[in-house]
Design brief:
The protein is an alpha+beta fold and 420 residues long. Helices cover 55% and strands 19% of the residues.
Length: 420
C-alpha cells in the first residue's frame, strides 16, 4: 500500500470518527439548548398566570392558540400539592397528536386549588433541530470531500519530488559509470534525501571504480606468470629424464595451470560483461549456434552415452555472437557435467524462451546460491564456479530472465527473452 493511500485512509477514518462523535455531542447540546429556551418560555407563562391569579384571585381566561395550550384542573379537597415540573409528552389537541413540552404547577384562586397545565408543541423545536443537524451533516460531507480532493491534489504535488527521485534511482546503473545527480527540492526533507543519495552514490562509484580497476589489472597481470609457467612446463615435458621421474607431478601442475587459465579467462570475461564492453547489436540465428555447439559436444556426449533431444525453432535475436556462444557453451557444459551415464539432454528453443534440461543423480542444486561466483555443486571439483555466474551476468546484460528448477530428477535451466 502506498504511503499516500494509507495516510488518506487513516485521515478519512479519523475525520469521520471525529465528526460522528462531534455530531452526536452537537445534537444533544442543541437539543438541550432548545428545550431550555422552551422551558424558559413556559416559566414566563407561569409567572403571568400566577401574577394574574394573585391580583384578581381568579383564573385567567383561556385563549387557545396554535403554539400554546393551557388547562386548569380543580384539585379535590383542600390538599395543596405544589408542582413545578417539566414533562415531554405526546398529547392530542384538536384531533392532532403531537409531541409537547408541559409545565405543571398549582395555583389558588378563590377557595380552590387548581393544577395548571401549560403545553407548548415541540414541532418547531424539532424542525429547527432537524434543519441544524441536516446543515451540519451537509457541511461535514462537504468538508470531507474538499479535504480529500485537497489532500489528493496537494499531497501528490508535495510528493512529486520523492517519486522523481525514486524513478532516477531505479534507472541508475552503477556499471554505466555516470553520476546520479538529484536536484534539490523546496522541501527540506526531500532535499536532504537527495543530497544523501548523491553523496552515497559518489562513494559507491569510487569504490566500484577502484574494484573494477583492481580486477582488470589483476587479470591482466596474471597473463605473464601464466605464460611463463606454460613455457617452463613445456620445457620440462620435453625433458624425458625429468618427465620419467616426475610424470605425475607434471600432470598435476598442468591441470592446475589449465584450471588457473580458465579462471583467468572467466574473470576477464565477467569484468568485461559487468563493464558493458559488449554491444548487443548483432543479428544472429540462435538455433544455428545451438546446433553448432551440440555438434562440438557430440563426441563427449557419445563417450558418456548421452542422448541429445532438440526441439528448436527458427529464432533470430539481437545479441553478441561471442557472448551467445559462451552462454550456450556454459549451459551445455553443465548439462553434460551434472548428467549420468546413459542419461539425456533436452533442448527446447522457442521465440520466447530457451530451455536446457538434463537428467541427473546429484540432487537439487542450491537455487539461492546457484548463480553466485565460485558456487560449486556436488561432484564439481574441476570447475571454476564461475560458469553459471557468467550465464547470469550475460542474461542481466541482455535483460533476460533465467530460472532453475529440479523436477523428476532433472535439472532445468530456462531463459526467458522478455520480448515486448
Amino acid at each position: 500500500m502506498k504511503l499516500f493511500d494509507k495516510y488518506n485512509r487513516l485521515n478519512i477514518t479519523a475525520t469521520i470518527l471525529t465528526f460522528v462523535v462531534g455530531s452526536c455531542a452537537f445534537y444533544f447540546l442543541i437539543n438541550y439548548i432548545l428545550l431550555r429556551q422552551l422551558d424558559e418560555s413556559l416559566k414566563t407563562e407561569q409567572q403571568e398566570i400566577v401574577s394574574f391569579v394573585n391580583k384578581h384571585d381568579a383564573l385567567p381566561e383561556i385563549t387557545p392558540t396554535k403554539d400554546q395550550y393551557i388547562q386548569f384542573n380543580a384539585n379535590k379537597g383542600d390538599e395543596i400539592k405544589i408542582k413545578n415540573e417539566f414533562l415531554t409528552l405526546k398529547k392530542k389537541h384538536e384531533k392532532e397528536e403531537e409531541n409537547y413540552r408541559e409545565l405543571q404547577f398549582v395555583v389558588k384562586a378563590g377557595d380552590k386549588h387548581y393544577t395548571v397545565l401549560v403545553d407548548k408543541p415541540l414541532e418547531e423545536t424539532e424542525a429547527l433541530l432537524q434543519v441544524i443537524i441536516g446543515v451540519t451533516i451537509a457541511m461535514i460531507a462537504i468538508i470531507l470531500l474538499v479535504g480529500y480532493l485537497i489532500n489528493r491534489t496537494v499531497i501528490r504535488r508535495l510528493w512529486k519530488p520523492f517519486y522523481l527521485t525514486i524513478d532516477q534511482v531505479k534507472n541508475y546503473h552503477l556499471a554505466d559509470q555516470s553520476d546520479l545527480k538529484l536536484e534539490n527540492s523546496e522541501i527540506d526533507e526531500f532535499s536532504l534525501l537527495n543530497q544523501s543519495i548523491n553523496e552515497m552514490t559518489e562513494r559507491i562509484q569510487k569504490d566500484y571504480g577502484s574494484l573494477k580497476n583492481f580486477t582488470g589489472q589483476a587479470a591482466h597481470e596474471m597473463q605473464t606468470p601464466l605464460a611463463v609457467i606454460r613455457t617452463k612446463l613445456d620445457t620440462l615435458i620435453q625433458n624425458e629424464t625429468v618427465l620419467e621421474k616426475n610424470a605425475q607431478h607434471i600432470v598435476d601442475i598442468e591441470k592446475a595451470v589449465q584450471r588457473l587459465s580458465r579462471l583467468h579467462q572467466s574473470l576477464l570475461l565477467l569484468t568485461k560483461v559487468e563493464n558493458r564492453q559488449f554491444q548487443l547489436n548483432e543479428e544472429l540465428r540462435l538455433d544455428n549456434i545451438i546446433r553448432d555447439k551440440c555438434a562440438e559436444y557430440s563426441e563427449m556426449a557419445e563417450s558418456l552415452n548421452l542422448n541429445f533431444s532438440l526441439q528448436i525453432d527458427h529464432v533470430t535475436i539481437k545479441f553478441h555472437h561471442h557472448l551467445a556462444e559462451i552462454l550456450i557453451n556454459n549451459l551445455l557444459n553443465n548439462a553434460i557435467r551434472y548428467n549420468k551415464a546413459g542419461g539425456g539432454i533436452e533442448i527446447c528453443l522457442t521465440h520466447n524462451n530457451l530451455s536446457i534440461t538434463n537428467t541427473s543423480e546429484t540432487g537439487q542444486l542450491d537455487a539461492k546460491n546457484l548463480f553466485k561466483r565460485f558456487y560449486r555443486g556436488q561432484n564439481s571439483e574441476d570447475g571454476t564456479g564461475l560458469g553459471l555466474s557468467i550465464v547470469k551476468q550475460i542474461c542481466d546484460l541482455a535483460d533476460y530472465t533465467i530460472e532453475y528448477q529440479y523436477v523428476n530428477s532433472r535439472h532445468d535451466f530456462t531463459i526467458h527473452f522478455n520480448r515486448g
